[in-house]
Amino acid sequence: MTTVENASERLWKRLNFFGVLAGILTLLLPFLGPWWHFSIGTDGGIFSIRASPFELQFQSLILNKQISTAETTASFFPLFWWLNLAFKLCYVYFGVALLAGSLLSLSEKHAESAETLVRFSSLKLLWLVVAFVIVLFITTFIVNSAPKLTGGAISEDFSMPFVGVERLTMPFTMPYGNFRISAPIDVGFTSIFAVAVIASALGIAARIYQKRMGYHPHEKPQVQ
């Protein structure tokens, strides 16, 4: 193998491929769509919610309309809309920082900056994914406490799944008799959440790979 080929091989080994992929996915995720869905009725016919850390969408068969928090807050709460936009741009920034740091690994001159950028941005998406799942766990617990709090308005047999399908039964007392309405509830994660998990794992791998490369700007390069 020639000297040029050896140098080229060493150069490509220094490129943090994990960080490049994680950076691209991180900066795209705020705009890809919902991570989680909740629907009542077949095919979400009665009511549905689609959520991600960046946006919340409601759709109702009664209103025959989809309501997005981004659109609603833009009209009634402009400050919240701007905060939501700023949150999205923060993760775009983290993605760009991770991508830049991973590419700068190719340069000995910018090795210190590359390590700083990767260390700063590589775990940001992981914390967001963990926080999102924790919020869903808490929400599920609160909803499952609803039958006890509603005094029988919802069947005590009801248990909202964290992921899966369950049947909601609600009894109604009318002057001419008692009725029970039953509808399936479908809860689960979307393929975008899978992308977020993959990007988080790549971010962890990027951080580990950056450390293992061991490029320190104060060390003298080896002459071969």
What does this structure look like?
With 224 residues, the chain is an alpha+beta fold. The chain has a single domain, classed as Butyryl-CoA Dehydrogenase, subunit A, domain 3. Strand 2 and strand 3 form a beta hairpin. The chain is elongated, with a radius of gyration of 24 Å. The C terminus is likely disordered.
Provide a compact summary of the structure.
With 224 residues, this protein is α+β, with helices and mostly antiparallel strands.
Short descriptors:
elongated; about 220 residues; 8 helices; disordered C terminus; Butyryl-CoA Dehydrogenase, subunit A, domain 3; alpha+beta
| Number of helical regions | 8
What coarse outline follows from CA principal-axis ratios? elongated
Number of domains: 1
- Provide the β-strand percentage band: 15-25%
Radius of gyration: 24 Å
Q: How would a crystallographer describe the biggest sheet? A: 6 strands, antiparallel
Tally of strands: 6
* Percentage of residues assigned to helices: 40-55%
**Contiguous runs where pLDDT drops below 50 for at least 5 residues:** 216-224
Broad structural category? alpha+beta
Examine the secondary-structure arrangement and name the CATH architecture. Answer: Up-down Bundle
Give, in order, the helices and strands: HHEEEEHHHHHEEH
CATH topology: Butyryl-CoA Dehydrogenase, subunit A, domain 3
Spatial order of the strands forming the largest sheet = 4-3-2-1-6-5
Nearest-integer average pLDDT = 79
What is the straight-line distance between the termini?
14 Å
Name of the level-1 CATH class: Mainly Alpha
